Amino acid sequence: MAVTTKAVTAVTPATDTSEKPPNKYKLALPQYAAVSPFFILFAIFGAFPVLFSIWISFHSWDGIGQMKWVGLEQYHYLLTDATFWKTIGNTVIIWVLSTVPMLLLALVIANALHNATRLRTFYRIAYFIPNVTSVVAITLVFGSIFSNNFGLLNAFLQSIGVGPVAWLTSPWGIKIAIATIVTWRWVGYNAIIYLAGLQAISADVYEAAKMDGASPRQTFWRITVPMMRPVILFTAVTSTIGGLQIFTESRVLFGDTSSIGGPGDAGLTIVSYLYQSAFIKNQFGYGAAIGWALFILIVLFSIINWRLIGGNDDERLTRRAARRVERKIAAQNAKREAADVR
Amino acid sequence: MSVERLRTAVGHVVLMLGVLVSLFPFYWMVVMASNTTPDIFTYPPKLFIGSHLFENMGKVLDNIDFFGSMLLTLIASLGVTVLVLFFDSLAAFAFAKYDFPGRNVLFAILLATFMIPTQLSLVPQFVTLAEFGWIGSLKALIIPGAANAFGIFWMRQYAKGAIPDELISAAKVDGAGFFRQYLTVGLPVLRPGLAFLGIFTFINVWNDYLWPLIVMTDPNRLTLQVALDQLNGIYGTDYSMVMAGALMSVIPLIGVFLIGARSFIADLAAGAMKF
């Protein structure tokens, strides 16, 4: 079918309207039908809502009554809203507190997994299980572990003589608790992806480094990390997008208290604030405006990630690393040949 | 050699410590679910599995319509999974194996939709569904997610390599139309890919919290996650009962995961490498 379509377009350009060769679009009807469900659903539940949300954000609306045009007022208010800025701060702090240890630990685990020859399947499943466990259930468990009065963590800290810490009532305690849940759920996931990246690096490179007498630490930082850049970029971008949308952890931890962000709103994230504005306070216009602010933040952070980790010099660096290794192999071979001659 | 062996041993120690951290919350969930609440709230805390598990589970069933919520969640998860598998694989088959006018443009649009965060359109989506009269109904959980860009992208990568062009040509010679070609040539070859996408989708829908929290407004028709959160909100003081509920909600999912865990993890990693 594809071949005939091409032939038809080649011989008869658009000017030919005779009915004899079947229209190329008509020929492709089954394919259009096949891809249409996604596009139809996206138009209704994706594209339209996005455009509609611009419209809503220019209004004051409780979701039921009349929409009142307010122009850019929601955005103006957003920029001067201390709570909104606080949620950005909270979200970014939680994101840093979770992403940095998460990706570093994942890299260490992936490296250990890569070298382990026994129990591989067991390890992978054990590390991946947290990721398929529901956030709600596990947040409840961590909520009890971090509980101020009878939490396991404080019991442990007291037993070694370090005070009880007010995990769930102090600003930093709350953020650390949320970041811990996020880290716990996603370390294994990222480790599995890093492991795939590690396995894609050819064994020759490591062999060459070994012959060169490189220590494991040198090998890790000089070869593994540079070669893994694209994979690291992937995990950094996905954890940024996920991290900026944190919601469930803080909502479940503090759902039954008066503020959904916990004491002092210290755990109120951007999405929590969106949810609170739109679906608790019925300020739909403001909720839509927060949605757009979130979108801009995600794009911004993704660009920063790209610049820091990947971006334009990514390929150059990988190539440079590869060249360095090639040179080493060549030198090694020359040395060995020299030794053989001797 | 002994240095090598030492390094392997250290590696295993590190990995085992990680496994302990990874699995400890599950153990702790069982400990809390099997003791009584007063037992939990003592110092020093009880660290071992108790004998009150079934009693606590019974209390969960008394307080919320656990099996009703579970059934609702199961129907939603299965519904989305079946539709996603069908629509995504069909679209992926067309994108991967047929050259039709506008294909590349359509695929580029599909990839661009990745960039849009779901939260951006949370408010208007809710309004749209309210307009349709779908709020509180299963349709709100199933229809919007019935086809997705991720699945199509992923299946297309899979289909490109897995389906030989000769098989499609042969089917055409036999007079099979596009849909028949999809059924007889595409589907059988795509089966391993479908297994991954199916588990992935099922787990995601089962665990979703924000969307059902917003659209399932009828307190008698809550998904498991929302019901569990509510159990905590209302009966939060009875910790061991809440933990029994959490445990009951987690077990089926871990079961589904363990069935296909081995190839699932491998497929997920392979998919990430393709981005």
UniProtKB/TrEMBL annotation, chain A:
Record CDD domains: TM_PBP2
Chief localisation class: membrane
Protein known as: Carbohydrate ABC transporter membrane protein 1 (CUT1 family)
Transmembrane segments: 32-58, 92-113, 125-146, 230-248, 284-309
Membrane topology: Multi-pass membrane protein
Name of a matching Pfam family: BPD_transp_1
Family per record: Belongs to the binding-protein-dependent transport system permease family.
Source species of the chain: Kribbella rubisoli
GO CC aspect terms: plasma membrane
Ranges of residues in domain ABC transmembrane type-1: 88-305
GO biological process, any: transmembrane transport
Cited Gene3D superfamilies: MetI-like
Localization per Swiss-Prot or TrEMBL: Cell membrane
Keyword ATP-binding in annotation: no
Source organism superkingdom: Bacteria
UniProt KW Cell membrane keyword: yes
Keyword terms, alphabetized: Cell membrane, Membrane, Transmembrane, Transmembrane helix, Transport
Automatic annotation (TrEMBL), chain B:
InterPro entries: MetI-like, MetI-like_sf
CDD domains reported in the protein's UniProt record: TM_PBP2
Domain of life the protein comes from: Bacteria
Transmembrane residue ranges: 12-30, 66-93, 105-126, 132-154, 189-206, 241-265
Entry coiled-coil feature ranges: none
Keyword terms: Cell membrane, Membrane, Transmembrane, Transmembrane helix, Transport
Subcellular location field: Cell membrane
ABC transmembrane type-1 domain span: 70-260
Membrane-topology annotation of the record: Multi-pass membrane protein
PROSITE patterns (UniProt xref): ABC_TM1
GO biological process, one term: transmembrane transport
GO cellular component, one term: plasma membrane
Cited PANTHER family: ABC TRANSPORTER PERMEASE PROTEIN MG189-RELATED (PTHR43744:SF12), ABC TRANSPORTER PERMEASE PROTEIN MG189-RELATED-RELATED (PTHR43744)
Record family assignment: Belongs to the binding-protein-dependent transport system permease family.
Protein name in UniProt: Carbohydrate ABC transporter membrane protein 2 (CUT1 family)
Species this protein is from: Kribbella rubisoli
